[in-house]
Structure formats: structure tokens, C-alpha cells
Amino acid sequence: MATDVLVKHGAFIDKYVGDAVMALFNVPIRHDDHGRRAVAAATELRSGLEALGAQFGLALEVSIGVATGYARVGRLGSDDSKDFTAIGDVVNLAARLQGKASAGEVLISEECYVRHPQDFADARGEQLVLKGFREPVMAFRLGHKKGSRLIDDPPETSARESASIGAIIFGILGAPCAVVTLISPLAVAVGAGGLFGLAGALTFLDRSALRIPVLVLTTLAACANLYTLWHARKLREDAKVPEQIKIMSTLERRRTNFVLAASLATLGIVGFEVVAHALLH
Questions:
Q1: What is the pLDDT of residue 222?
Q2: 234 lies in which domain range?
């Protein structure tokens, strides 16, 4: 039930831990109303469990914490095991709010509240002392008021799923880095067959109908990588967060430089092959 409700509102299911679930909003597809979506999912989940409990004569209740903010998102972990997840203060805040929420309550952060205060007419604000936070944190407890726009009427934008150009590219090509890794050797083979007149498979690749699709896919994948790097840099520059959060880690810089070098090298190889093929044929 939780999965259906969360996915319906655009959430990405991060993980299940026992009877708890962690869900991310605004990634990997961006939604301007992600805070509203998160609270709408929380209130619907609460109402759904109450209805399910009444149906079977059980006391089913859920406590939910919702926090809005910036986090590092990606495939994180060790060399042996990595998962797509998020880390940062906002993740800890959501967990602490959930711990402070009583059964049947939804507790939201101040930043989530101030973005859509008109949706939370019955919310009660209070200062909470949370583990891991030096200063008391303002949070808001949502009541069970019926008929609110948030619970009964989904936002107008929820009916339209918007995807960025990057999401479309990822959807068509998968992970661009992987595509470059898989296809680039074929581009090199095509070039070698054309330049040196090597026999066998290389000559076949150079003269067959596969040559153009291989070069086109390789070029698209390399361009997708470059677009991803540019878009990530733009997001960092535009983000209204402390400067220390914008700074890339050593691993991120190393990976960025590798992808940049591989993409430029791939485009160079493709360009060289095209020119050489035209001159030699």
C-alpha cells in the first residue's frame, strides 16, 4: 500500500527498513511542488491505513516525518555495495521528525511549511529539540482536518508529469557513461579498419551498414555525458545553499574529469575516423 501511494505522488522509494519506508521526492524527476506531493502522500497514507484498520478491526497507525532541503543524491556506498540514495542534514531531519511524531501524526519541517502555508490551515507549530541538531528546530504537526485542498484535491500540476531534457536522454540511452564505455571500442575498431585496411572484423565494421549507427550512437552518448556535466554544474551554481555544499568531493571531481576526458576523446576519435574515411575511400 505504501509503495502505491508514494509512487502515485511521484516518490522514489529509497529503502524499506522493517516496517519503515524512506522515500525521496524531486529525484530523479524534478517536480516544483515536491513538498506538497510529499505531504499529500503522507496524509493519504495515513488515511488509507486508518480505513484499512477499520475494515479489518485493527489499530493501524503510522507516524511520518517530512523535511524539505538539499541533499547529496546518487549511487553511494562502498566499492562492494552501492545504492541510489540521499545523504545530508535534511535526511536526518526527516528521520528525527518521524521519531517525534505520535501514532497517526504527520510532522513537517518549517521549510516545507513556509512553501505552502495555505495548505496547512490546521498545522500546529512548535520548537523541538532533536538529536544531532544544536538548536531547537521549528516543526508543524498536521491535524486530521477534512476537505482541505491538499488531501482531497491533488495539485493541478500533479496531473502532468514533466521531464527534463536530461531525463529524456537518460530514458533513451540509459546511463550515458555506460553507453560510451560499451560503444567507444567499436568506434576505434571502425577507425582502425578504415585507416589501416585491416582484414577481418575491422574491415567488415568499416564497410558494413553498422558503421554509421555505431558512430551516431557513440556521438550521442558522448554529448549526453557533456550535457550531464554542464547541467550538474549549472544546478550547483544556481542552488541557494551554503557554498560548502556546492563544493564537489574529491571522488566527484575525479569522476567528472574522467567523464569529461572520455567524452572529448570519444568525439575526437569519431571526428578523426569520419575525416579519414572520407579521404581514404
A1: 82
A2: 165-280
